Structure formats: C-alpha cells, structure tokens
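Quick one, probably user error.
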C-alpha cells in the first residue's frame, strides 16, 4: 500500500522547552489505514499530530504527506488540504451560528463553487449523522453532536487523511461513543486514512494498528490484540488496558488458559461462554 504520511527520523523541540518532546521518531502511515496513536498525557501525541499537517515543522528529520515535504512553504496549502484535523474542544472549532453554515465555512474559504458547497455540506452532515440538525444552532447541541459537526466541517474540505487529536477528551461517555462510532463508520464507508490520537485504550479497539508513544518515542506498534496483550508493559507506561483484556488477564493469572486479544465485549463474552461450555462437557 502507498504511504500517505511518512515521518522520518523526526525530532521536535518547542522553542522554550528544555529538551526534545519527540525523539528520532520514524513512522509510515499507509493509505486507507486506521491507526490509533496511544499514550498518556504529555507523551508527545499531539505534537506528532500537528507535524502531520504542517502546524509544526520538525526540528530534525522530515515529514512528507503524499510525497510533499511539509517544511517547504509551497507545500503548505496542498498538505493542509490533504490532512484534515479535528481537535479536542468542539467549541473552539465551531465558527457559525447555524450548523450548515459552519460546515460550509472552510469550503467557502477555499473558493468552492456554491452548488458544490451545498452538495459537500449535505454529504458531510449525512456522513456524521447530523443532517437533520442542519438548521440548528451549534451551541445548543451536545458535546458529541458538536464534535460530529466539527468532523463534518473537516470532511467538507474533502481531505484524504483525517487526523483526530483526542476528539473525545472533553465529552461524556455517550458523546465519546457517538464520536467513535462516527469515525469507525466513516472509515468503513469511505476507506479514508484515519489517525486517531487518544489516551483511552478502549478507543483503539476498532483500529487496525496501535502505536504506543511514551516520552517522545514510539515504544509499541502492532494490531490492537497484539499490543493489548502486553498488559504489564502497558501498565508500566501508565496506561490502563481495556476492561475486556483486564478480565481475561486476571482469569489467566488465576490459571485459566485464555487468549488476551478478545477485545470487544462480544469477543470477550464468547471466550467466557466457551469456559462454561467446556466445563459442562
Ligand atoms: P500529549 O498530546 O501526549 O499530551 P503533547 O505533544 O501535547 O503531548 O506534549 C508533549 C510535551 O511537550 C509535554 O511535556 C508538553 O508540556 C510539551 N509542550 C506541548 N506544547 C508545548 C509548547 N507550546 N511549548 C512548550 N512545551 C510544550
């Protein structure tokens, strides 16, 4: 598969910081992949996200998006159009007083023609399940709904890659669920490349690859089942494993021979049901 974001030996140093927050990081993101970047607060995830669309430029090393070096001035606009970013706080991303105007804001600024804007806005709102709210006032919506509007606003720019930097951090459990299932559906329907930054392990279950960041370095990289099986190492990094893995891990410690990669509630329930069937035989 083609690499759409290539991060090569990248270090990043904030001007007033004592040391590098990213330390010689290399990472290739293939087209159409769904990658979760996981790490506790301060590990460097957000810095990594911002390097992906030239909000930040590496201090050392190189980031390319579709082959375009993000450090070159001429590439700034194509890079920003290719990589759409969604941030933590939906209130900071909403600019208009009517939902559909908000979603239309970025394509209008790009000079997209009005019939095309109408089509993109309707399509983006349908994709995030907010079409029927198109004439509502965004500030009256729930956090999860506002974040879905923010995602629609980014989709209306038709980026090839969607980077979401802790999009659920300010949401209640229902809002978190809403936003995550929106992202998972989007990815399934459009095959878009998605990079989801999070410090919640359970948000990584739907990804095809999980990368764990600690102290500015990539310390694990694999399928969710593989990464989450490394329970002790994850705990040592200050991360909590999903409840499903935790349950299976404790049962294994108690002597049962169970896999640790049954991540969804359904898969975990199947494993546990299997125990009862076995013992009934
Ligand atoms: P995360 O997203 O994992 O919480 P960040 O990338 O936001 O991590 O931050 C990594 C480190 O960089 C933290 O120690 C943070 O304090 C520091 N940092 C973040 N932004 C700035 C900044 N603008 N100036 C100086 N240090 C910063």
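Nope, works fine. Designed sequence:
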């Amino acid at each position: 598969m083609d690499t759409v974001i290539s991060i090569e030996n990248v270090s990043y140093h904030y001007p007033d910081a004592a040391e590098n927050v990213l330390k010689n990081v290399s990472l290739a993101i293939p087209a159409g992949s769904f990658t979760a970047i996981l790490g506790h607060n301060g590990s460097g995830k957000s810095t990594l996200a911002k390097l992906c669309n030239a909000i930040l430029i590496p201090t050392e090393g190189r980031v390319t998006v579709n082959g375009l070096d993000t450090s070159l001035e001429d590439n700034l606009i194509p890079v920003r159009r290719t990589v759409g970013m969604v941030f933590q706080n939906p209130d900071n991303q909403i600019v208009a007083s009517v939902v559909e105007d908000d979603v239309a804001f970025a394509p209008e600024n790009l000079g997209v023609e009005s019939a095309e804007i109408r089509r993109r806005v309707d399509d983006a709102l349908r994709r995030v399940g907010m079409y029927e709210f198109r004439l509502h006032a965004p500030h009256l919506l729930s956090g999860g709904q506002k974040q879905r509007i923010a995602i629609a606003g980014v989709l209306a720019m038709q980026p090839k890659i969607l980077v979401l930097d802790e999009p659920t951090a300010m949401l209640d459990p229902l809002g978190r669920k809403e936003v995550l299932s929106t992202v998972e559906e989007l990815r399934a329907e459009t095959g878009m490349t998605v990079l989801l930054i999070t410090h919640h392990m359970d948000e990584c279950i739907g990804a095809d690859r999980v990368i764990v960041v600690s102290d500015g370095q990539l310390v694990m990289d694999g399928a969710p089942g593989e990464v989450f099986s490394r329970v002790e190492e994850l705990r040592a990094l200050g991360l909590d494993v999903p409840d499903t893995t935790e349950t299976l891990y404790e049962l294994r410690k108690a002597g049962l021979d169970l896999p640790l990669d049954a991540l969804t509630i359904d898969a975990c329930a199947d494993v546990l049901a299997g125990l009862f069937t076995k013992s009934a035989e």
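The chain has two domains: 3-93+156-238, 242-281.
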